[in-house]
TrEMBL record:
CDD domains: Obg
HAMAP family, alphabetized: GTPase_Obg
InterPro entries: G_OBG, GTP-bd, GTP-bd_Obg/CgtA, GTP1_OBG_dom, GTP1_OBG_dom_sf, OBG_GTPase, P-loop_NTPase
This protein's GO CC annotations: mitochondrion
Name by which UniProt lists this protein: Uncharacterized protein
Single GO term (MF): GTPase activity
Highest taxon of source: Eukaryota
Length: 467
């Protein structure tokens, strides 16, 4: 046994105090050692950045793997009608209820996949009861996913498959029978001994199962791959199992009182990957601290966090820009990209999936730095590394922090020349707009150009830039 007490001060430069008590030492406390360790040298800011970069404390999730499992059907019931003066009533066991299904629905109310558990299992169906009462259907599990979620079916993990194979190979014939059939109390041995009726019933069920398997093969040839981009769009990811038959199902002219019923079937199990690709008309891209969030809050109704340190924004944010004629467009703000993001430096570049579907890209560049054109080329390289041809998308360039007059004015001329030249060489047109997002200068011009581009994209026309 070893007990360790550690007091860690929050501020750098102080000493941390640990008290270690080993099993032997605990009986002789006078031997206890007091250890003084010096604190690591990095500051609280470095530590908090490191914490963020490791993705800790984040409640935004845009990729999850889940298992969708339909509910098992309820068991059929073996029962007989009982009434005074009716010595042997007819069979009246109800069928089991169907198991619930797992249904994914696209909802505009959700923004993240955070709430989705690994196992999405629907409820099982109720068992059939006497007096011909069928079991209740199991409740469906409705999982709301944000608009723009892509649901993809994947193969079962090797470990899960191996376990299933192991279980089925270990099962004896009796166990398999028990799993399928329900018998009237104390009648199992006589039913099995008499044989014939039970064998006929087994044949009947086997035939039905063969047909069901064939039908399932036809249906599940194509795996699920669906883009949930329409509000209230739904998909049944895992159907519930059907309920078992009650004993009246097995009545024949020879056997008027069958003392067996079937159990419910297992629901379907599917392994799925859910990936959220936000849908917005325009996507903001830029280096950290360029002023993307400030720009978003200046043009839209969104209030993202703004602060003078890198990686303030950790999740995509969507803002809606309202125009006086009630036209609306949506703009997505994402975390900042840095050089080498495609090699997983900084926050990596996986969050670019949230601007992948934007019709227009808005580059936000900080004009107040020494050489803003370098930032621009870094950005273009990272976008191309994520998806080839992404920079060919209709774009506008926001030259932000134009209010920092000491450098911005000189920088802007050269910056504009370089950017226009670069887009011209690709045969594309672009607008470079000097803006001060913080003081809301030239914002209307930027939003008007943005709107024109989005409208042209929506109408399918080749975008030209009306400045
Ligand atoms: N002077 C000036 N400062 C600005 C302007 N726009 C943004 N800032 C400042 O720049 C800093 C960073 O702004 P953010 O909007 O958080 O930058 P960001 O690009 O969203 O940064 P990340 O989320 O970290 O990627 C803040 O201190 C803002 O006040 C501007 O037009 N002029
Ligand atoms: Mg930000």
């Amino acid at each position: 046994m070893s007990i360790m007490l550690r007091l860690q001060p929050r501020h750098s430069g102080q000493l941390s105090l640990s008290l270690k008590v080993s099993q032997r030492q605990s009986r002789h406390f006078h031997q206890t050692k007091w250890q003084f360790e010096s604190e690591p040298t990095h500051t609280a800011r470095d530590r908090s950045l490191d914490y963020k970069l490791r993705g800790k404390g984040r409640n935004f999730v845009d990729f999850v793997r889940v298992v969708a499992r339909g509910g098992t059907g309820g068991d059929g019931c073996v029962s007989f009608h009982r009434e005074k003066y009716v010595a042997k009533g007819p069979p009246n066991g109800g069928n089991g209820g169907r198991g619930g299904s797992v249904i994914f629905t696209a909802s505009a109310d959700e923004t993240t996949l955070n709430h989705i558990p690994y196992l999405c299992a629907a409820k099982r169906g109720g068992p059939g009861l006497g007096a011909s009462r069928h079991g209740l259907s199991g409740q469906d599990l409705i999982v709301k996913v944000p608009l723009g979620t892509i649901i993809r079916e994947v193969d079962a993990p090797a470990s899960a498959q191996a376990r299933l194979d192991e279980l089925s190979s270990e099962e004896t014939k009796e166990e398999k029978l028990k799993k399928k059939w329900v018998h009237y109390p104390r009648s199992e041995q006589t039913t099995l001994a008499k044989g014939d009726f039970f064998r006929d019933a087994q044949k009947l069920i086997e035939e039905e199962e063969r047909y069901a398997r064939w039908k399932e093969r036809q249906e599940s040839e194509s795996q699920i791959y669906i883009d949930m981009d329409v509000p209230d769009q739904s998909i049944v990811a895992a159907k519930g199992g059907v309920g078992g038959y009650g004993n009246p199902h097995f009545v024949t002219t020879e056997n008027r009182s069958p003392k067996f019923a079937t159990r419910g079937y297992d629901g379907k199990t599917r392994y799925l990957e859910l990936e959220l690709k936000t849908i917005a008309d325009a996507g903001l891209v830029g280096l950290p601290n360029a002023g993307k969030s400030t720009f978003l809050s200046a043009v839209s109704n969104a209030h993202p966090k703004i602060a003078p340190y890198p990686f303030t924004t950790l999740n995509p944010y969507i803002g809606t820009v309202d125009f006086v004629d009630s036209f609306q467009l949506t703009v997505a703000d994402i975390p900042g990209l840095i050089k080498g993001a495609h090699k997983n430096i900084g926050l990596g570049h996986a969050f670019l999936r949230h601007i992948e579907r934007s019709k227009v890209l808005v580059y936000v560049i900080d004009l107040s730095v020494k050489e803003p054109w370098n930032d621009f080329s870094t950005l273009c390289n990272e976008l191309e590394a994520y998806s080839k041809g992404l920079t060919k998308r209709p774009s506008i360039v926001i030259a932000n922090k134009a209010d920092v007059t000491a450098v911005a004015k000189d920088n802007f001329k050269k910056f504009e020349q370089i950017v226009l030249g670069e887009f011209e060489s690709k045969g594309e047109k672009v607008a470079v707009i000097p803006v001060s997002a913080k003081y809301k200068k030239n914002i209307v011009k930027a939003t008007t150009i943005l709107r024109n581009m989005v409208e042209q994209e929506q109408s399918g026309a080749k975008p030209g830039i009306a400045i």
